[in-house]
Amino acid sequence: MHNTNFFTESFSQNIIGDEQSGDIQASEQQMRILIDLIPELILLKDGIGRWILTNQLVLDLYGLGGRDYIGKTDMELADMSPQHKESFDYNVETDELAWERRTELKIEKNILGQDGVMKVWEVIKTPIFDKNGRRHRMVIVSRDVTERKKAEKALQLSEKKYRLIADHMNDLIAMIDKDGNMRYGSPSLERGLGRCGTFNIFKIVHAEDLPSVLKTLKRMISEQKNEAKAELRFRHMDGRYIWFEISFSCVQEVDGVMNHFIMAARDISERKCYEHHLEFLAYHDPLTGTHNRRWFMEKIPHEITVAKRNKTQMAFMYLDVDNFKQINDSWGHEVGDEILIQLIERIKTALRAVDTITRMGGDEFVIVIPDLKSQEEAFTVANQLCTLLQQPWLVKDQEILTTSSIGVAMYPNHGKTLQLLLKHADQALYRAKTKGRNQVHFFNNNLNIETCY
């Protein structure tokens, strides 16, 4: 196989150098002897597409043997050899593409030979520009890759057959003993985990998953179970963990002792990612990223139980944006949504890691502050939030002013169940609204709402 790039470079340098020396005719004679011996298509054109020099193989292929081709363009040659007009048209099109890119262009083209056999040629077109940047020469070298293409197609068909088998197998196959030492590992271990050779499989199992795996294998031996399944994480050679679904099968020795296991593992990372995403959506608000009502109703009762056991207080702060409907009506829902997103980020700056925010719907949020010793501590936080949320919002280069009202119910003074605490915090919020908004109110057991701010 010839080095096409080397030949093209040498060819180009010769042509340019010869022109500078004025010895073009002698150079062409030498070049013709050379290129006629090369089993590739060699062609030189000038800057406007006229054929200057080619080898006999090109003339034979295009049916131009014995004809005067020098100084003619592809379109003129198409009139002389009309059966190849489509190929000549393609030559013009791809020549122009090479000129426009101003760099080497590699393409493939099919040409019907005089023997009636269609052949595939790999074509490299190299444009050469003069010192002023004008189009000067086009060097075209083509190699017959028909047999290579046939081999590639045969290989693809072969790979397809084996792929059908591989697609119905789990990704990783290994034989391990009861201590995790690998006796055999399939080549797919290197592809899936970046590991080759044999190693102890237990050493790459995630620490959280290892106890259940050991328990599963021990139970298989003690209970003479032939199969078992598990989901676990293996550590890739690059340090990351990958989720796999594992199928274990016992291998019995001649004496019936089960000391080895066949492990078949399939990568389930995408499924796990999807499951985690669904779980997130199930318990979080898609707009603000805060917890949603479902999470609140499932998780907060446990926090109340903890507060009861520790004999601490909790604050339930029901909060919304004053006149939020007017904001949506005046500025549009997109602006309203952006304000809610910024509102959550601002609230987070005033809370601790143990405090939670839940979007109950619309512009209504419930903030739960656990582990309090007094109502005064809750007031400090609520007062800070009320002040913080008076600051203007910057949305689409516009400053928008809003305020927020907060109603607060304390556990255990204002209720000992989640439902009752929510109800009382909502009543306190309602009173804050009716008293002029932009303030904090605490629920009072005497049915009078105590104003704190």
Task: Write up what this structure looks like.
The structure is a single chain. By secondary structure, the protein is α+β, with helices and mostly antiparallel strands. It has three domains: 4-146, 2-Layer Sandwich (Beta-Lactamase), CATH 3.30.450.20; 172-269, Beta-Lactamase (2-Layer Sandwich); 284-451, Alpha-Beta Plaits (2-Layer Sandwich). It is 42% helix and 28% strand. It contains 14 helices and 19 strands. The protein has helices at residues 4-21, 24-36, 56-61, 74-80, 85-101, 146-166, 188-193, 210-222, 269-283, 293-310, 324-331, 333-348, 375-388, 418-434, and strands spanning 41-46, 51-54, 105-112, 118-129, 135-144, 172-177, 182-185, 227-235, 241-252, 258-267, 291-292, 313-321, 356-361, 364-372, 393-395, 398-400, 404-411, 440-442, 450-451. It has a seven-stranded mixed β-sheet, with helices on both faces. Helix 4 packs antiparallel against helix 5. The longest helix is centred in the middle third of the chain and has 21 residues, at 146-166. It is flat, with a radius of gyration of 39 Å. The relative contact order is 0.06. The model is unreliable at 1-12 and 14-19 (pLDDT under 50).
